[in-house]
Write a sequence for this structure.
C-alpha cells in the first residue's frame, strides 16, 4: 500500500472521529466540551465548573509533551498525516480540483499551473469546498457549543449573533488557508515549522533521499550538479519534485518546508520499480542512512516524553474520578462577633457560597462539627439547580457559658460539613472556618 493511500485512510478516520465525537454523550455529558455559554468543561463525560479548570493544565501538558514526542520520533509527521490544513488541501486540490473537475491534469504533478478557462468548474469547486468549510467550522464549534444547543441556536439567529459571527470567521479562515494561502500556510504561517526544527536529531525519522545509492544531486552550496545517469541510481526524472505539495526537491537534503507526506517516496518507487530497485526516498533517519542500519527509536527523549505524558494522564484520570459535585466558599463578616442583648449567646456571621456542579438539582444544607456551636440561620435546607450558585448569610451561635469560654477571645477553627440532603454520603464537602469567642472583658 502506498503512503498516499495510508494517509487517505488516516484522514478519513480523523474526519469521522472529529464528526462523531461531539454527538457521543453519557448522561448528557460529552467526552470533551469547553462551553463558555454554560461556563463549564466536560471531559471524559465528567462536568467541571469554570472555577475548577485544573484539568486544562493536565490537557496542556499532554498536548505539548505529545507534540514534542511525535516531533522527536517522526519529525513533521503531524503536518503530513493529521493536520486539518493538509486535509483541507487534499479535499480541495486533489479531490475537487483534480479528480472531479480536472482543473489539474494529474495528481502526481503539483507543479503545473491550474488549467486556463474552465470558469464554471472553478466556481463549482470553490462553492462545494465552501460548503465543506462551513461544515468543518460547525464541527469545530461543536466542541465549544454542543450540537444539541448549536442547532437550537441557529433557529434563532437574531438572538445568537455572536455564534454566527464566530462561525463565519472560522469558515473564512478555513477557506483562506486552503484556497488562497495553500501550502504557503505550512511554510510561512504555521509556527510549528519553526518549533519542530529545534526538536530534530540525527535519529529522528524523516523523509530522506539516499545519496549513497542515488548519488549526490546537489553540491555543498546546494547547487544542482550536472551529473548524468551512472553517477548513482537516481534517474533524475524529477518525479519527486513534480509531486511535492510544498514545491521542494527532497534530494537537496532535509528542509523545513517538508511535511513528511512521503508523496515523493511513492513517486520514486514507481520509477525505481521499473528498474527492479527499491525507492531512493524513504522514511528513515540520517544515522540509519549513513550506517545502513535500522532506525534507533529507543533513546532518552523518546522514553522521557511518554513517561511525562503517562504521569499527566494518570493524574488527570485520578482527579476526574475523585471530582466533587459541589463547591463551598466561606467568608467571615467584618464584625468579629456579636453578643446577644441578654448576654446569653455569642454569634459569628459568615457568607457561605454554595455551588452545585452536579448534573442535576439537589437540596443542600450543612452542619457544624462542634457540639458547642449551633446554626441559627438558615434554618432549613435549600434547593440548587444544576450549575446554580447561591450565597447564604450564615449565623453560628454558641452559649455564653459553654466550654468555649476557655478560649478567652482567641479564634479557633470549626469544621463545616456541607452536603446534599438527598445524597449525603456521596455529595458533600468539608471546610474549615474560624469562630471567635469574646474575651472576659467584652462579656462584661
Amino acid at each position: 500500500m502506498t503512503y498516499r493511500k495510508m494517509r487517505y485512510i488516516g484522514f478519513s478516520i480523523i474526519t469521522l472521529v472529529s464528526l462523531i465525537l461531539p454527538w457521543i454523550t453519557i448522561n448528557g455529558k460529552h467526552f470533551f466540551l469547553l462551553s463558555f455559554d454554560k461556563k463549564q468543561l466536560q471531559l471524559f463525560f465528567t462536568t467541571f465548573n469554570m472555577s475548577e479548570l485544573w484539568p486544562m493544565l493536565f490537557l496542556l501538558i499532554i498536548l505539548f509533551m505529545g507534540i514534542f514526542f511525535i516531533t522527536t520520533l517522526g519529525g513533521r509527521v503531524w503536518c503530513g498525516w493529521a493536520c486539518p490544513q493538509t486535509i483541507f488541501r487534499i479535499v480541495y486540490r486533489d479531490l475537487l480540483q483534480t479528480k472531479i473537475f480536472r482543473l489539474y491534469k494529474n495528481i502526481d504533478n503539483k507543479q503545473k499551473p491550474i488549467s486556463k478557462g474552465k470558469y464554471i468548474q472553478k466556481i463549482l469547486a470553490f462553492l462545494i469546498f465552501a460548503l465543506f468549510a462551513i461544515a468543518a467550522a460547525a464541527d469545530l464549534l461543536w466542541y465549544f457549543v454542543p450540537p444539541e444547543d448549536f442547532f437550537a441556536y441557529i433557529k434563532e439567529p437574531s438572538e445568537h449573533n455572536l455564534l454566527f459571527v464566530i462561525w463565519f470567521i472560522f469558515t473564512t479562515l478555513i477557506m483562506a488557508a486552503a484556497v488562497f494561502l495553500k501550502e504557503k500556510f505550512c511554510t510561512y504561517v504555521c509556527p510549528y515549522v519553526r518549533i519542530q526544527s529545534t526538536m530534530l536529531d540525527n535519529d529522528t525519522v524523516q523523509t530522506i533521499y539516499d545519496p549513497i545509492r542515488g548519488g549526490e544531486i546537489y553540491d555543498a552550496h546546494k547547487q544542482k550538479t550536472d551529473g548524468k545517469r551512472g553517477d548513482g541510481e537516481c534517474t533524475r526524472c524529477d518525479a519527486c519534485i513534480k509531486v511535492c505539495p510544498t514545491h521542494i526537491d527532497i534530494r537537496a537534503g532535509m528542509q523545513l518546508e517538508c511535511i513528511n507526506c512521503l508523496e515523493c517516496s511513492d513517486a520514486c518507487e514507481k520509477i525505481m520499480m521499473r528498474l527492479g530497485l527499491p525507492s531512493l526516498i524513504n522514511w528513515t533517519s540520517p544515522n540509519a542512512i549513513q550506517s545502513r542500519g535500522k532506525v534507533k527509536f529507543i533513546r532518552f527523549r523518546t522514553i522521557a516524553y511518554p513517561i511525562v505524558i503517562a504521569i499527566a494522564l494518570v493524574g488527570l484520570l485520578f482527579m476526574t474520578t475523585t471530582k466533587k459535585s459541589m463547591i463551598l466558599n466561606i467568608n467571615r463578616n467584618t464584625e468579629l462577633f456579636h453578643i446577644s442583648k441578654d448576654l446569653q449567646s455569642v454569634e459569628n456571621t459568615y457568607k457561605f457560597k454554595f455551588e452545585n456542579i452536579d448534573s442535576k438539582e439537589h437540596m443542600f444544607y450543612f452542619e457544624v462539627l462542634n457540639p458547642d456551636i449551633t446554626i441559627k440561620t438558615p434554618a432549613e435546607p435549600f434547593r440548587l439547580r444544576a450549575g446554580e450558585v447561591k450565597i447564604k448569610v450564615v449565623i453560628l451561635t454558641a452559649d455564653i457559658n459553654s466550654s468555649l469560654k476557655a478560649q478567652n477571645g482567641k479564634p479557633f477553627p470549626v469544621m463545616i460539613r456541607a452536603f446534599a440532603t438527598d445524597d449525603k454520603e456521596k455529595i458533600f464537602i468539608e471546610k474549615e472556618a474560624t469562630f471567635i469567642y469574646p474575651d472576659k472583658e467584652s462579656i462584661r
